[in-house]
Design the sequence.
């Protein structure tokens, strides 16, 4: 089955700095790559996603890049703010109609 | 209006009991899921239902059984609860396999 690895497991940045989280996957047939943000005690919510026919997608301060050849994709957050502090999950949709999540990254933005 | 709602939000129960968690979505989605999030925050899929048909059944104990009375509902029934079942359980739904999954608010189950 699909194997998704997410790094780092924790990330601390100073307010205003950038944060990058990376995920690698194993199934080359995977074609949908969402990122979810989960605030403390809340549900995971989609923040951005990318499909396999696109290499990069941006939405204000967040962006996702996809390298299908190397089978990895990354979340980039610029100008981080304290409210960006949360757990971030990458996910991959391989053949079989099932989202497989990475282990999560705890992001702490220090003001 | 809440898109995906699950009840209860908190559930504390003794070992050996049987309990159910209910989930409803008003988005008209075809696929619903149950995920388990353990203390390390890892999200693992348990079940997936598409148009009332079970399409994925991960290697979860058969004490866990999903029940879908209609396309908008996917309930989770757990028999003979064990301490290790303590976790947050999330219901989710999506229109199809290639679109965003919307999560419910979660049910924190504590088995004592």
Sequence:
């Amino acid at each position: 089955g699909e194997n998704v690895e997410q790094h780092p497991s924790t990330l601390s940045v100073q307010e205003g700095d950038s944060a990058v989280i990376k995920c690698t996957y194993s199934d080359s047939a995977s074609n949908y790559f969402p990122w979810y943000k989960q605030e403390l005690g809340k549900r995971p919510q989609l923040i951005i996603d990318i499909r396999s026919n696109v290499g990069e997608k941006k939405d204000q301060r967040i962006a996702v890049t996809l390298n299908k050849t190397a089978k990895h994709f990354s979340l980039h957050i610029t100008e981080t703010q304290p409210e960006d502090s949360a757990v971030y999950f990458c996910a991959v949709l391989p053949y079989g109609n099932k989202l497989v999540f990475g282990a999560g990254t705890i992001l702490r933005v220090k003001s | 209006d809440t898109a995906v709602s699950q009840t209860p939000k908190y559930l504390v129960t003794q070992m050996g009991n049987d309990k159910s968690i209910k989930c409803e979505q008003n988005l008209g989605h075809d696929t619903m899921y149950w995920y388990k999030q353990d203390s390390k925050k890892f999200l693992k899929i348990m079940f997936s239902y598409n148009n009332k048909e079970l399409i994925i059944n991960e290697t979860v104990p058969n004490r866990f059984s999903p029940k879908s009375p209609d396309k908008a509902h996917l309930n989770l029934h757990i028999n003979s609860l064990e301490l290790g079942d303590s976790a947050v359980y999330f219901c989710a739904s999506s229109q199809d396999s290639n679109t965003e999954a919307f999560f419910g608010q979660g049910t924190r189950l504590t088995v004592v």
Remarks:
- The longest strand of chain A covers residues 19-25.
- The radius of gyration of chain A is 13 Å.
- Chain A has no helices and eleven strands.
- The mean pLDDT of chain A is 93.
